[in-house]
Amino acid sequence: MSTTVDTTQMSAVAFSAQQQEDIRALVTRYPQPLSALLPVLHMAQQHFGYLPMNVQQLVADTLNVTLMQVREVVTFYTMFKEQPTGTYLMEVCTNVSCMLNGAVELLDHMCNTLGIQPGETTPDGLFTLAEVECAGACGSAPVVQVNNIYHEKVTAETMDALITNIQTGAETGGVA
Ligand code: FES
Prior knowledge:
single chain; binds FE2/S2 (inorganic) cluster
């Protein structure tokens, strides 16, 4: 893991008074503040949209842990994003069960449909495509997680329908 910190991302950010109160309440549930790191990172990502370095520093300062302890967690879990994503983050599992049930072909199809590669965002900012490891729903392979919603036994046809429904506003995909 890189130990270099990009100081250009270090502009000031802050949690609201309510969020600070919520974090204080969270910390009391654990034997040490570090144990509250995961829920606080989720809270930060939900609020700021992603976890740039200044937000990671804010989390570290808030929990009185080191920036490196925060980075160890952020860089380990794919659910934490250090870069902004589109409104809909399409995470395609290509691990064994999903691969054996057509996930690689499905991912190729989505690349063609959306005109982007994994790691990229469509020009309208609507979709980001990502290839991920096991999503924990192997019995329903192939699986695509769209934001917080799992789509199971996905085919090219059902994915095309989902994308079209999102593009036309017929489906919110969990986005308010
Ligand atoms: S291999 Fe895709 S959900 Fe487990």
